[in-house]
Design goal:
Helices cover 50% and strands 6% of the residues. By secondary structure, the chain is mainly α. The chain folds into two domains: 99 residues; 177 residues, hpI Integrase, Chain A, CATH 1.10.443. Strands 1-2-5 form a three-stranded antiparallel β-sheet. Strand 3 and strand 4 form a beta hairpin. It is elongated, with a radius of gyration of 26 Å. 29% of the residues are buried.
Length: 327
């Protein structure tokens, strides 16, 4: 096992900071422009200066030995490989470094010091799936005791509708429909065919982003979503009825609820994991087929659904591509 020192030791290869007076003056002028003209806070500007002096300019002028600023265009495409593979920098940090370079290059163009497009590519890394700590069944969700009514409603919506957190935060009571009118809708008919509850739906029309607030749902996510459990639907309705029809169920900011959930929410289950646990249960303990699961989860790719519900990937391509009317 690696020691603490090994885990936190610097990468094997490092770059010497840039010391050329002309380049340093350009960085200082760029920072002055950010501070004076754009009225940016010093705490915002300082990381850009550090990225330029420690990583960007040393890469081009030491590692690639370019003759001029314009020549940086020749090597910008491969910069993320060097930062990732040679310096061991994370994909998130590389994005910040590239952001600093993009802003610096744009300023150089405005000052007519350079010309032409500087191309940068994303630093992709292998996706790692995070296993769920627990897999609660519906009965465990229904019997969870908490004095916080809003957190209870959040749990019920996330689990029994398999909703994303950002979708829940944009909901109002007027988005829900129950009874015979809901039963006639396609989302409920699919649940009924799988012997699940089929009389309660919600319309996903928007989502609330942490950064930009209310916005359109992510691709393929808008539409009607059915609740698959009778007792879960009854508890949700009992919590919705006292609330004004056109007011948001969760009026505070997203982070406010995330922080409260970490402190007082369902133990060992994040808000996002409520949806994952819900899809896992549907995939293992109900008759809902993989296509119905994909439509309920509103995934663009059926392989994503298979990953969520831990279904085998065999024959998924055949399910999507088959044109045999008799199969």
């Amino acid at each position: 096992m690696k020691s603490w020192q090994d885990l936190h030791s610097p990468p094997a290869k490092t770059l010497p900071p840039i010391q050329d007076p002309h380049l340093l003056k350009l960085v200082l002028d760029f920072c002055d422009y950010q501070l004076q003209d754009l009225k940016k806070h010093p705490y915002t500007v300082q990381p850009h200066a550090q990225n330029l002096i420690r990583f960007v300019l040393p890469y081009f002028f030491h590692e690639k030995a370019v003759a001029s600023l314009d020549d940086m265009k020749k090597f910008s495409v491969k910069m993320h490989y060097f930062l990732r593979d040679e310096l061991g920098i994370t994909a998130t940090k590389i994005r910040y470094i590239q952001m600093s370079l993009s802003m610096f290059w744009r300023w150089l163009e405005e000052e007519q010091i350079v010309s032409g497009r500087l191309i940068l590519r994303r630093a992709l890394q292998d996706r790692k799936t995070t296993p769920l700590q627990i897999l609660p069944i519906p009965d465990k969700i229904l019997t969870w005791q908490t004095p916080h009514e809003d957190l209870r409603l959040l749990l019920l919506l996330a689990y029994f509708f398999s909703l994303r957190p950002q979708e829940i935060f944009a909901l109002r009571p007027s988005d829900f429909s129950a009874g015979a009118s809901a039963k006639a809708m396609e989302a409920c008919r699919v649940m009924g065919q799988a012997q699940l509850f089929d009389r309660f739906v919600v319309a996903i029309r928007a989502q609330r982003s942490r950064r930009i607030g209310m916005c359109e749902p992510k691709s393929n996510s808008s539409g009607l979503v059915a609740c698959f459990h009778k007792e879960g639907a009854e508890q949700i309705v009992s919590l919705l009825k006292p609330k004004p029809r056109d007011q948001y169920l969760f009026p505070m900011g997203n982070d406010w609820y995330f922080k409260r959930w970490r402190r007082d929410g369902y133990p060992r289950l994040t808000i996002k994991d409520c949806r994952r646990a819900s899809l896992y249960w549907l995939g293992h303990y109900t008759a809902l087929d993989i296509v119905g699961l994909r439509n309920h989860a509103r995934h663009a790719d059926i392989k994503t659904t298979a990953l969520y519900v831990r279904r085998p990937l065999d024959d998924l391509d055949a399910i999507q591509d088959s044109l045999d009317l008799d199969c």
